[in-house]
Amino acid sequence: MEIQQQLIRDLEGKIALVTGGTKGIGKAVTARLSQAGATVIVTARNKPDEHNKPYHFIAADLAKREDVEKVAAEISERYGGVDILINNMGANTFPGGGFSTLADEHWYQALEINLLSSVRLDRALLPKMLERKSGVIIHISSTSGQYPIWESTMAYSAAKAALTSYSKSLADEAGPYGVRVLTVSPGLNKTEAMSDFLGQLAAKEGITFDEMTQKLFDRVGGVPLGRMAEPEETAELIYFLASPKASYISGANYFIDGGNFPVVK
């Protein structure tokens, strides 16, 4: 699906960091912020495939404290800080099947990847924003944080719920200093990670990929728009919230789920 965009370069002169920015939603966000004129820094564990990439890449596993420190040090030395921080890193790579399948190590890993990576990066980069009395931090959570599926997302959902709560607390603390903090909670996005996730579940249950996709739609109560989101659609919301157009928005959690969420938000 192609989204028609008016080329407004309202992020000229801004430095943005996108974690997990080489695939899926992160890749789409990187492209959108670049299109709006931002100088974009991307972190991920593996080097991106594309050549002549329009961003500065730092290889890092942000689940490791030392890698967070490395990223912060390189950004400080090269750019002096960031104006926009998109904490997009996250993963649901933990065993399904409910509480009995999850050992302590799975819970620790879920928290390291989906919560503490963002907490540590905020702690490293937020002080410069507070000094300048400007900046935007956006945490990418998930509708799973409010609507967990015990069979497959128990640890991931708990960690994302914690991220959402932390994000609101940080917004209240940083707001008086001119720094906006927000949360975006995507629903089902048509990404490589989602395809892998559905493929694994389909293989486990002995059904086709399409059958598994429909089963997931049914499990989450249906998606009124009848499809997954394209990553570019989710990126458009994130860009808007990072832009001057959203200058009075902070502390909120935005769901982008095709109408899926089963309660009034």
TrEMBL record:
Keyword Coiled coil: no
Gene3D superfamilies: NAD(P)-binding Rossmann-like Domain
Keywords (A to Z) from UniProt: Oxidoreductase
GO molecular function, one term: oxidoreductase activity, acting on the CH-OH group of donors, NAD or NADP as acceptor
SUPFAM superfamilies linked to this entry: NAD(P)-binding Rossmann-fold domains (SSF51735)
Pfam family, one: adh_short_C2
Top-level taxon: Bacteria
Keyword Oxidoreductase: yes
NCBIfam families, A to Z: PRK06523.1
Family: Belongs to the short-chain dehydrogenases/reductases (SDR) family.
PANTHER family: 3-OXOACYL-[ACYL-CARRIER-PROTEIN] REDUCTASE, SHORT-CHAIN DEHYDROGENASES/REDUCTASES FAMILY MEMBER
Name of the protein in question: NAD(P)-dependent dehydrogenase, short-chain alcohol dehydrogenase family
Organism: Mucilaginibacter gossypii
